[in-house]
Specification:
alpha/beta; 2,3-Dihydroxybiphenyl 1,2-Dioxygenase, domain 1; 2 domains; 4-stranded mixed β-sheet; 8 strands; 16% helix; globular
Amino acid sequence: MHVTGVHHVAIICSDYERSKKFYTEILGFSIIEETFRAARNSYKLDLRVSDTVQIELFSFPTPPSRPSKPEACGLRHLAFAVEDLDRAVTELTAQRVQVEDIRIDEITGKRFTFFQDPDNLPLELYEN
C-alpha cells in the first residue's frame, strides 16, 4: 500500500447551521457540495481545506457526545497548517473564537496553538 496523503476528515456536529457557519465563515473553507440525505435526516457538507484536503461535515439527529477532556483515547485533534500564526490568531479572536496561548513545539521549534469548534472539537493551528 502506498498512501499519498490525507483526503478528508469527517466530523459529526450537533448543530449543523452553527458548524457550517463556523467552518465556512470563520475558518474560510469553501463549500464543494452540500447534500441533504432525507432517509437519514442528515446533511453532508463537503468543504475544501486545501487543494488536496477536505472536511466532510455531517449532521445527524441527536448524536451522542464524545468525551474529549481529559484526553480520551482516539483522534486527539485536527491540525491546520498556517503560514502566519499571529495573523490567524488575530482573525479568530476578531470572530470571538477563544484561542489558547501560542506555544513552541519542543521537538520541531515551530509555533502552534489550539482552539475549539462549536462542539468543542480540539483544533490546532501549526505554523509552517
